[in-house]
Amino acid sequence: MITSVLRGRLWVPVGVLTSLAYLVHQRRVALAEQRGPHGQHPVDRSLLELKMVQVVFRHGARSPLKPLPQEEQVEWNPRLLEVPPQTRLEYTVTDLTGGPKPHSPFDSQYRKTVLKGGMFAGQLTNVGMWQMFALGERLRKSYVEDVPFLSPTFNPQEVFVRSTNIYRNLESTRCLLAGLFPHPKEGPITIHTDDASSEVLYPNFQNCCSLRERTRGRRQAASLQPGISEDLKKVKEGMGIASSDEVDFVLLFDNMAAEQAHGLLSCPTLKRFTQMIEQRAVDTVLYMQSEDRECLQMVVGPFLHILESNLLRAVDPASPTGKTRKLYLYSAHDVTVMPLLMALGIFDHKWPPFAVDVTLELYQHQQSKEWFVQLYYHGKEQVPRGCPDRLCPLDQFLNTMSVYTLNPEKYHRICSRAQGRNSEMERD
């Protein structure tokens, strides 16, 4: 059923791909005529016009997803859930086609874990709400005040908002929108989301059998690797956690990051080993994914395809009016941001913090009509892999993305390989 639904969803018109291929070819011809003997030519930035912005962000600070097995526990008081008045904003949630909000199995699972103090696992706190509000204010300054790119009030013809169907992400999006568009708007803002079974804003182990098979057991195996195992033993002993308890560096870091964001550090050992815990948590994720191209494709490829499709529509003169927005907002997770950074070649081997953003700006030169992409991570300019400078020609940026981008057909073909093999084995 999932496959049939996805086949029926229109991700990007075939004509757009054809048009872009032609446009890129024409642009390369034009650039070859304009550039010097070394293939470089200066770009007059004053002639660049901003055409589109895409922002992928992690939700704000939250409570841990799972408590650590130790006597000393942080008290997660429900007062941390109080909503700051400035962040209040009316919104409604629909599926990607405008239908009813899908069920959220993750929220149902989080509610089964009650932390000391009474809060549920994975809940957005008022600290996280302020973080997201601040990100919204920063975006407002960049795209409403400093550059009059967006309307000062929310306009659905200009802005498309999508979030994973998890409450902390929906609430994070609310707070960001409140900072970006503080002026009242009639009626609620619509946030689009997808069913958990077909979501691509995070690695979907439920929908991708190959990814599930490839990573099965690797998180536990990572804890047994030389270096990681010795460090893990050292931290667990320092915290008084039994060697038999199933605790790895990802779980340790999740608790540590949540506690630090709220000034609630429970154990001096966590503070003493802060850098090591973060690095080993990153090492664990890299081991799980094996830094393998196909694995990274399955993790983030479909989402890269969405970002790419938005770029293609924006540069295609045949795109119907109203099909392209000025701003695309995507509320995601650390497990989205990390592989996205890897695919773009800008991963700094640090865990993506709460409320961090990856921003793609699309510009067109008003004389040459060339297209360029500017990439930011956490508000700082980045040079993507394969790009000569921070201002990256669109065709080169698309080449960088193409290494990991998967259209829906290829994604489901790769993901179903394991399923097909299992079926054959069952028949045998």
For the structure shown, list the relevant keywords.
single chain; 428 residues; alpha/beta; seven-stranded mixed beta sheet; two-stranded parallel ribbon; 16 helices; 44% helix; disordered N terminus; disordered C terminus
Blueprint of the fold:
Layout: H1 2-8, H2 14-34, E1 48-58, E2 91-95, H3 105-110, H4 126-145, E3 159-163, H5 167-180, E4 189-193, H6 209-215, H7 218-222, H8 228-239, H9 249-261, H10 268-272, H11 274-289, H12 293-315, E5 327-332, H13 334-344, E6 357-365, E7 371-377, E8 380-382, E9 391-393, H14 394-402, H15 408-415, H16 417-427
Parallel strand pairs: 1-5, 2-4, 3-5
Antiparallel strand pairs: 1-6, 6-7, 7-8, 7-9
Helix pairs in contact: 2-12, 4-5, 9-11, 12-13, 12-15
- Name the average pLDDT: 89
Largest sheet: 7 strands, mixed
Overall morphology: globular
Extended strand count: 9
Q: Class by helix and strand content? A: alpha/beta
What's the helical proportion of residues?
40-55%
The proportion of residues in beta strands is 5-15%
> Which spans have pLDDT < 50 for at least 5 consecutive residues?
1-18, 27-39, 419-428
Give helix and strand order, one letter per element, not per position. Answer: HHEEHHEHEHHHHHHHEHEEEEHHH
